[in-house]
Every structure is written in structure tokens, then in C-alpha cells.
Design a protein that fits this description.
By secondary structure, the protein is mostly helical. The protein has a domain of about 170 residues. It is built from 10 helices and 7 strands.
Length: about 280
């Protein structure tokens, strides 16, 4: 006798939206944008202007957590062959953990902080590059490529070419594409945008007051500065043949950096120095 199949409520919610939006596009034409506007939380334009790539030394590697049943050790936060810290999206997800959310006054999310059911969703997956967006160190934490969504809504954006994915891409493009960035980051930002296909769908005009925004503090930005300086300083020490401190972001990252090839460390340092010029 086959085991009893169980149905989970969250899965039903996901399937309802998936089937409804794809089977009845005319009936539900306004739903994708309303869904993202109501449930999504964005990083503000100020953050994009100041720190368009939040963790330029981090890249996503879903396999870094290993598999205890198969005897594969946990390698989260160890450097890859290029020196980038390997993350399973944990660092990205936790970026705004201590930040309040500003939404429409009186809304359920206004003045709150995110709980555990939210996902740091990458808006673009397939891009003009051999790797997926999250596997590319610039696009992984490129502010326009990130929105925090409830898990079941985020799953809808993962369906390549889906109406929800195309809608959130169009929203991100409209929000950030024309915003200025510091001169020293112009080339990096343009490199990122060049890899992101332009939206293939039109949306209604966006009203910032209708969206949900994180409210970064100066401490949030100071932490970005400190973490970047820790990585660049460690790479500079290694380039001079000097030892590094016990902890560079994590102890595992500090222990692994000396094993990365000198050429790869040199390239990573050159890449990160551009970001280190933040005012």
C-alpha cells in the first residue's frame, strides 16, 4: 500500500497563483504587479546610489553547505578558487534583518521587521553571462537584482519567463535604472546592467509610496565599509607575504584565503578596490 500523500497549504497557495496567472492572463492581468507591490520589500534608491553591490566579495554556491548523510563537509564561507566567499544565500537574506520597513501607513508591514518566511529573491536568473545571476559576484548582491518576498511568492519569480518574474524585472528596471551612482562605480554598475536583459513586459507607473522599503541606518552602511575593508586588508597582507588575522568575516574564510592562488587573490583585490573608494 502506497504511503498517504500530504498536501501543504503553502504549496496550494503557490499553485493557485501559478495556475490562475498562467491560465487566465486577461482576468488576472493586474495581479502580478499588485502582488509584488504589496508583499515585496525593496532596498531604497539611496542604498543603490551609495552601495549598488552590497557584498562584492560574496558569491552564491548552493553546494557549499555539504551533505552530512553523504559525508560531504559543510564549506559555507570558505573561499572558492577565485577567492570569493561561498554563500548559500544566508548572508544575502540576513542583510536587512535589523532594518525597519516603511510601507503604506496603516499597512500590516509598515514599521515592522521581516520574519523568517521571507526570501531574498534574485529578480534575474538567466542573464547575458554563462553563469546564473546569483553565481556572478557582481549580480549576486546588485541592489536592483534583489527583492525580499514571502517564500511562495518568491517561487513564482523563479519560473523562467513567468508573468510574475517578468513583472518584477520591469519594476526593478523602472525603479533603479536611471538612478545616478558615484563616478568610481559607474563602470561596475554599467557592467551589471549590461548582463541583465531589459524587461519584456509593460507595467503601470510605479508610485514609491505604494511600495515597501527597508530603512537602512548609518550603522548598516558602516558595516558594509568594515566588512569590505576587512577583506581588502587581508588580501593586501597576503600580497605582501604577511599573515592575516584569525577572522576575516568568518574564521573559515580567513583560513582558506592563503590557499587561493596568488593570481586569483590579486585579481580579487583589484576588483574590490573599486568599491573601497566609497565616500
Amino acid at each position: 500500500m502506497s504511503p498517504t500523500r500530504r498536501v501543504h497549504g503553502d504549496d496550494l497557495l503557490y499553485r493557485f497563483f501559478q495556475d490562475a496567472l498562467e491560465s487566465h492572463p486577461d482576468l488576472f492581468a493586474a495581479v502580478p504587479q499588485l502582488l509584488i507591490s504589496t508583499t515585496g520589500v525593496w532596498l531604497p534608491l539611496e542604498t543603490y546610489r551609495r552601495w549598488p553591490v552590497l557584498l562584492p566579495w560574496v558569491v552564491r554556491d548552493p553546494k557549499c553547505r555539504g551533505n552530512t548523510r553523504r559525508g560531504v563537509p559543510d564549506q559555507w564561507s570558505s573561499p572558492d578558487a577565485r577567492g570569493y566567499l561561498r554563500d548559500d544565500n544566508s548572508l544575502v537574506k540576513s542583510l536587512p534583518r535589523a532594518l525597519d520597513v516603511r510601507g503604506q501607513r496603516g499597512s500590516h508591514i509598515h514599521g515592522a521587521r521581516l520574519g523568517t518566511e521571507f526570501v531574498a529573491a534574485h529578480i534575474w536568473r538567466v542573464v547575458e553571462h554563462a553563469d546564473l545571476a546569483s553565481r556572478h559576484p557582481i549580480l549576486n548582491t546588485f541592489v536592483p537584482n534583489l527583492v525580499w518576498l514571502p517564500q511562495q511568492v518568491a517561487k513564482l519569480t523563479d519560473r523562467e519567463g513567468s508573468i510574475v518574474q517578468r513583472t518584477v524585472q520591469a519594476m526593478a528596471y523602472a525603479l533603479y535604472r536611471r538612478e545616478p551612482v558615484p563616478d568610481h562605480l559607474h563602470d561596475v554598475v554599467e557592467e551589471a546592467w549590461a548582463m541583465l536583459p531589459e524587461p519584456s513586459i509593460g507595467i503601470d507607473p510605479l508610485v514609491p509610496g505604494d511600495l515597501n522599503w527597508f530603512q537602512p541606518t548609518e550603522r548598516f552602511y558602516a558595516t558594509r565599509v568594515a566588512r569590505l575593508q576587512a577583506v581588502t586588508t587581508a588580501l593586501e597582507h597576503l600580497e605582501r607575504g604577511e599573515p592575516i588575522v584569525e577572522r576575516v568575516v568568518t574564521r573559515r574564510y580567513a583560513a582558506g584565503l592563503p590557499t587561493v592562488s596568488a593570481d586569483a587573490r590579486h585579481d580579487l583585490l583589484a576588483h574590490l578596490r573599486a568599491f573601497a573608494e566609497h565616500p
